[in-house]
């Protein structure tokens, strides 16, 4: 039996690899948490400097940090912490170091739970998978629950077929939460990432295919109280 509502966390920490992940992937969910009154913080582990997309001219290091700040405002998020691990090579960074950085922020914001991409990285990017592995390792230490954002197999299959995008999904039976979302703020926040939200991006098609639903799996459940 799938859950249809988000957990009643008062402080939510989103752990992502790149500026734009918080909007392109988690945007509707983070906006929903914020709308429910939660304080939502973001820890972004790289500055996204290795992207091959340059929707606007300029230095991606500076552009993407500014885009993240603007998008976070649109989504109603609180603290945004941007670290400087190497984009595209996050998996080379020791997991325990990243986990200790996640733990430090989670403690500081008194997080009730952590949200990130699924452990498989969802879009075929190894940075996403490593960021989530670090979040789960931190959550083990802190005893926190972790939700992983995913897409159903039918959407992953369609995106692979149409765009050749290496999406990894799950069958319905392995998805724990299916939540109805409102995408207005997510679409607006995505457009703040001008260097990345280029026309024809697979992201727009994914939002279309997902419609009003987002899908999550428990990567770590709450400790029994
Ligand atoms: Zn990303």
What does the model show?
This protein is α/β, with parallel strands linked by helices. The protein has one domain: LmbE-like (Rossmann fold). It is 40% helix and 19% strand. The chain is built from eight helices and seven strands, in the order βααβαβαβαβαβααβ. It has helices at 21-25, 27-35, 60-75, 95-108, 126-142, 153-163, 184-192, 202-210; strands at 11-16, 39-46, 80-85, 113-117, 146-150, 177-180, 213-220. The chain has a seven-stranded mixed beta sheet, with helices on both faces. Helix 3 runs antiparallel to helix 7 and helix 4 (95-108) crosses helix 5. Bound molecules: zinc ion. The site of zinc ion has 5 residues, from loops.
Q: Care to count the β-strands?
A: 7
Q: Under the CATH scheme, which architecture would be assigned?
A: 3-Layer(aba) Sandwich
Question: Which CATH first-tier class would you pick?
Answer: Alpha Beta
Structural class: alpha/beta
Bound compounds, please? zinc ion
> Biggest sheet, strands in spatial order?
3-2-1-4-5-7-6
Write the topology of this structure.
Elements: E1 11-16, H1 21-25, H2 27-35, E2 39-46, H3 60-75, E3 80-85, H4 95-108, E4 113-117, H5 126-142, E5 146-150, H6 153-163, E6 177-180, H7 184-192, H8 202-210, E7 213-220
Parallel strand pairs: 1-2, 1-4, 2-3, 4-5
Antiparallel strand pairs: 5-7, 6-7
Helix pairs in contact: 3-7, 4-5
The protein binds zinc ion.
Zinc ion binds next to loops.
